[in-house]
Known about the structure:
Number of helices: 5
Low-confidence stretches: 1-6
Helix content: 10-25%
Mean pLDDT: 90
Strand content: over 45%
Largest sheet: 12 strands, antiparallel, barrel
Order of helices and strands: HHEEEEEEEEEEHHEEHE
Radius of gyration: 20 Å
Amino acid sequence: MSTSSALSPAFKRALLSTLTATAMLTAASMSNAGLFNKNLPTDKDAVLSVGVNAMAVNSAYDLEDSYELKVLPGVFYDNNRVYARGAQAGAYIINDGANQLSVYAQLAGNSFDPDDATGALKGLDERKASAAAGLSYMRITPVGGFRAQYATDVLDRSGGNIARLSYLGKITKDKLTVYPSVGFEYHDADYNEYYYGVSAKESAKTGVAAYTANSSLNPYINISANYDFNERWAGFANQSLSYLPAEQYDSPMVDSRTDSTTTLGLLYKF
Length: 270
């Protein structure tokens, strides 16, 4: 049994809380030591954007129809103290213009509905999306941002942990702003076992081969764009693509090397 599996979800959440508190104390100490500049003042003129997003999800799971359409609300806001970016919301511990350390929560994980699956996969158990919470640090440089994130499943769907290392750019031309991003996402064995593993019980019931998943490192690319039609209305688009390594692709639940999501949205700025 892996070390990750041997730790209970409650212990892992307690460990993450301890790490978060430690990071906050460490950040405060480093800030006092002069390693960080003074935090930016609260932006009283921060704009709240609220809208609706239409998402086309192309799942790597072996489904009768690999595309699923979803309609979700979208919220964007950042006043240098708290922020909301689509499915993620957080609060800054440090935000001095060059360094951003924050605690955050976001939607996380895949979803697998056996009613939409093919053949014997229809007899498997459902896998549900979850919510993750953790720490994020980004260093902002003249050539872009470099970000590290770590989070755990707070709803205990998988009981797993995820981490992400990424580069984020920003390209602005008149009313159009494009945000390219590329990096790697780590999924631990608990996460992959829930979303890609097939238990012995499921195998005996359905005839699908049993499968035990290990941890994985998934390369991904993401491109977002925002276009301001006028002072009140803006359009939003996003394309994400994640490559499945062998630990996930070898699952009998999977028939594609990629997960992708295309999002189109309309935002109103207050």
